[in-house]
Amino acid sequence: MSEEPMSDDPTKFYTGLVAEAYSALVSMPSDPAPYAEFVRAAGGTALELACGDGTPMLDLIADGLEVEGLDSSADMLERCRARAKAEGLDVTLHLGDMANFDLGRLFGSIFIAGPSITLLPDDATVGQCLSSVMSHCQPGAPVMIPFWIPAPPGETPPPPRSAASPEPDGGELRLTTVSVDYDAAACNQTSVLRYERLRQGEVVESVERPWEIHWLAPETVVDLAAAAGFTDITTLDLNDSPATADSMLFTLRATAPS
Q: Which residues contact 119 (CB under 8 A, 6 or more apart)?
């Protein structure tokens, strides 16, 4: 069995087996419909940050929308290119850090499909991300960015998630939460995750990596968006009502000045 030593480097998380297993084991797959509606209403070319292996971006492109993608994982972008080729789609991808990127052009809208912004380590870095987003917005361009506040972990870890391997050799992929360190005061959570590949019930490849997230309250997100220069700033919960301190999942909607 091959086993990779655990790394604390966050840029190395979505590589190798983790990148391969992402689509099969992701807990919150993105529905393309609201993002398609968002991009279509804005017009022009959109930019998806943390686009990963192309969900939902490729669905939007297949629907005739112009969307480019940015991600910090070269492995995820390669998987996205392979998916696009298999589906007969042209895709424009950028390798870069969503907290600090410079693509040399402006976009009609910018979004993140899912709360990937919680992967940034602190409030200041989230502020840098929003400033980078602002610098790539056409006048009046809207942005849509989901945020997530995790509940404190239970006494026992969640059960493993398993899925059939999408690769031709078959087998099974399995994700297990080994441990969770939840720091409510610092708004940080570090989970040690174990990814495994099994064939005929035997583990043939295994890797453990720390998955670190940092969450922000809605009022903090509003302040950071205002500091980045956005206008028409709102944070909405799953019912499209104003987010409150009790909202576990909410979305920043804001507009670049005209």
A: 10, 50, 212, 213, 214
Q: Are the CB atoms for 47 and 71 separated by under 8 Å?
A: no
CA distances from 91 to 84, 111, 166, 184 (A): 7, 17, 22, 40
Q: Does one domain contain both 88 and 201? A: no
Residue labelled with tokens 């043939």: 204
* Domain contains 143: yes
Whether residue 63 is contained in a domain is answered as yes
SS3 26: coil
Helical spans, DSSP H, in the chain: 16-25, 32-42, 57-62, 74-86, 123-135, 218-227
What Rg, from alpha-carbon coordinates, does the chain have?
A: 18
CA-closest candidate to residue 71, choices 15, 131, 134, 4 = 15
- Three-class secondary structure of residue 40 per DSSP: helix
| Contact indicator for 212, 190 with CB cutoff of 8 Å | yes
Per-residue pLDDT tens digits of the chain, which is 258 residues long: 544 444 445 567 999 999 999 988 876 678 899 999 999 999 999 999 999 999 999 999 999 999 999 999 999 999 999 999 999 999 999 999 999 999 999 999 999 999 999 999 999 999 999 999 999 999 999 999 999 999 999 888 889 999 888 777 778 999 999 999 999 999 999 999 999 999 988 999 999 999 999 999 999 999 999 999 999 999 999 999 999 989 999 999 999 999
- 157 plus 81 within the same structural domain: no
